[in-house]
Predict the 3D structure of the following.
Amino acid sequence: MTTHQLTLANAKRTRLIDHADIARLTAVPTPRTDLVARLATVPGLVRPGIAHWDMKTRLPLHPLSNENAYGDPRLLHDLAVPGAALARRLGADVIVGAETGGIPLATAVALAGDLPFAFVRKPGYIGHEDHEPRVRGASVAGRRVLLVDDAVSSGKALEAFADELQAEGAILVGVFTLVDMRDVATTVAPIATTLPLESIATYLEVLAAATEHDVLDPATHQLAVDALINHWPDNDPRWTLLNQAA
């Protein structure tokens, strides 16, 4: 996704007809191809199979452990550089990491952009002190902030973090994330369609890169994308086929 791009990869829920449809939806622009491949091939980041823990709410297939990307300092730096560039374009004064998955990436973005860093607590957090602040680190009151998280899906979490930042007087100007999962979300909150948002890759792009580099089996990938885009019902017999393939 590019900055200010408000359309989703498959916003109209186009039914997939053949392999060309999948290629169109998962195409990665050439300048980012290497970075997306490095992300998708981090050991353990893409986990083949159905995520039973939250398959009804967020991610029905191939759960991602995005934090695994933080283990390689060179990769973490390279992933942060586009975030620092986005911060410059948006005129951000402070980089804010969303607790907890966004904090390491936000720290790297702040370092790459030579900008102050803060992190925002998860909504509802109860600390050890009375009236513990929602945001810690650099002051965000009256300042333009770029929120950084490891993933954005329906935008509900983004909405909640935005409320926390607003309560501290921050001006949220945009979002940077590793993986934009709006392309497989069933619903998307308004803030996630209007706020400038940039990512390293969409969820479908990560799956495509993982397949290209033998992390996922091509047959499994084909079935998974079909299930995600066309929203197979719970009683669809192909779920069994997908389980067997994974």
Summary: The first strand starts at residue 94 and ends at 98. The chain has nine helices and six strands.
